[in-house]
């Protein structure tokens, strides 16, 4: 049956060539759209890993009179104490520029005894960071005052980095190589999706803000009590401005998350709208062309009916032909699409591509099936006497 | 003869309304997306308010220090000291606007928070960028040198901070914990123009960081304006000559690089596409063309498919015309003209739809203060796209049709 359909198509390869090209291009478009959606959905499923409600971020420029490491550390202590003196402030912790939902990124290569050259985000965090964000530790502990006297620099890594760098084995007490330094892992924390709801979980390595790093950290994460309002924020702003002396900005993390999510959603919405209209366009076109082709073959269909084919088998043949046609197009499309997971283009997990391929194959089949259904039904309704009489 | 073609085309369009609808839908939709996209690009790149002098200006948005030993490099906006000392003293530019990148700070009014984007500028900033003053006037060189706390605010800030007051010049606005006296109010600028956008413009002398610090890197940008467009290349050379003499601050680096670019190039050079050797515009144009090609491929294929069906439907007409001696080229010409008429119809519908969409975007203020329009250039480009569209989708079906044998064409009836 299928080989027969194939022969029918081959006989009209010139006419069918354009149809196949059109289906092939639509497959590629759908593949791109589905890859984006599957990726976003995959990311969306992971929990955020921390709490951002009632967390504010105060960013400032380090005043120029603070030059030495000690004075910078002292300055941070002063700010921390001042913040904690407000009854509405639950906790305050310092962070580098790449605090959650910030635009800034900072990453570097690290290696361990098991693995070389793994890219990871580098975060600077102080002892209170974990409590402010209410993130979870999996094993080991977060930084504390005791680390002031530790011989080698201490770090906390997230679960994903433990999986990639230590092949999932317990990393506590092991060392990470970073540009000549040996960093001691003292804790493993749950993954934090700190770039937004629709972005992937990334490797993370947290360094403790020591006296040397204090000069370069000028962001304070502040957890406030629920219900802290703009009046309090104004008061806080004034107090911080007076202490710091340079420009200060206070932002709310929930607003920052909304903005980050918009950044991931807007391109997706544009893609969906454009892809959707392209597909409507293609569907209408396919429908028209199939309908026309079937109408042109009235005499052939009439003949088949006359020698005893049922209406059902005629419409089955026509729908089947369209599906074989789309299979040819999909085979070419698959050849190109499969290169993406094979060549690891765009650094996405292979599963995303495979799911996207499956979805787009199903989508094209359904689309072609629906477009061929009505013309097929029409063909089935042809009366042999009328069709043959026309000849 | 064209009149005849036109009549035939309209008759054919009326015959199979469903096919006509598909064709028109495809054309007009594709065109709508193209027009809206071009309107955005046009808005971002042409000389819009207040940057009306872009064609005779060069932008210095970054300086770079490069180390040859370990291929290290550092990019940053320039310092005020650098721009004031090396750029303001150039001979070709008639005016040099120096301003900081806008920084967000807060203002609190009526127990509400207001995010204020603050920009420090010099006095020539107000000459290079032609802001429309709704009231008051810019601060003067005298005021800047005295370090007076005066400010020019945007119309949006006036509305958000002062409410419905008719005039606010002379009143005080408190932002970033500092009181500024309002000197003028300007029409707001969309955020898509980072060099001229801000809510609050104040003299650089009142900046909280020390603008006199003798480093090369900082947070400032400069726009040099030449007397005429013809002086721009000369200005670029003069700047390059001065840059070649400057040594990096840091001993780790060997080379100091900074390039004065046109507005568009200054952005693309700082993107991953550009580098200090080439601005990256050609790469961007290439990427955009490839995308455009792919985007137009699907509707074109669709149109070709439909056109083939429609033309083959008229095989009897073609047979008769051929039998009476019409040459293939006449027939091809006729069908291409017919197809162009169809695409032009789609084009007009597309322009109407995009006009409605752009109006909607403007009215809902999707991007604050951005006013998208369909201007002459955009229209011209879309017309060109239309003609290409019509030709490509018409040529192949017409060619296939013209090769029909008279006998087969007549017999298939």
Give the ordered list of helices and strands of chain B.
HHEEEHEEEHEHEHEEEEHEHHHHHH
Distance between the termini of chain A: 27 Å
Query: What is the CA-based Rg of chain B, rounded?
Result: 29 Å
The succession of helices and strands of chain A, N to C, reads: HHEHEEEHEEHEEEEHEHHHHHH
| Major sheet of chain B | 7 strands, mixed
Over all CA atoms, what is the radius of gyration of chain A?
31 Å
| Overall form of chain B | elongated
SS elements, strand count of chain B: 13
* Count of separate structural domains of chain A: 2
Question: What's the assembly state of these chains?
Answer: heterodimer
**DSSP helical segment count of chain B:** 13
**What global shape of chain A is seen?**
elongated
Q: Structural class of the helix and strand makeup of chain A?
A: alpha+beta
**Class based on secondary structure composition and strand pairing of chain B:** alpha+beta
What portion of residues of chain A is helical?
40-55%
Mean pLDDT of chain B: 85
Low-confidence stretches of chain B: none
Give a verbal description of the structure.
The complex is a heterodimer of chains A (391) and B (413). With 391 residues, chain A is an alpha+beta fold. Chain A folds into two domains: 2-46 and 260-390, no CATH class; 55-252, no CATH class. Chain A has helices at residues 2-11, 13-45, 69-84, 129-133, 159-166, 230-244, 253-296, 298-306, 311-337, 339-343, 350-380, 384-390; strands at 55-60, 89-95, 107-110, 118-125, 137-140, 154-158, 175-178, 181-189, 204-208, 219-224, 248-252. In chain A, strands 3, 4, 5, 6, 7, 8 and 9 form a seven-stranded mixed beta sheet that branches. A four-stranded antiparallel beta sheet of chain A has the order 2-10-1-11. The model of chain A has no long low-confidence stretch (mean pLDDT 85). Chain B has 413 residues and is an alpha+beta fold. Chain B has two domains: 2-46 and 282-411, no CATH class; 62-260, no CATH class. In chain B, 48% of the residues lie in helices and 17% in strands. In chain B, the strands form three sheets. In chain B, strands 5, 6, 7, 8, 9, 10 and 11 form a seven-stranded mixed beta sheet that branches. In chain B, β9 (172-175) and β10 (178-186) form a beta hairpin. In chain B, α2 (17-45) crosses α11, α2 (17-45) packs antiparallel against α12 (376-402) and α9 crosses α12 (376-402). The longest helix of chain B has 36 residues, at 328-363. Classes of the chains: A alpha+beta (391), B alpha+beta (413). At the A-B interface, α2, α6, β11 and α7 of A face α2, β5, β6 and α9 of B.
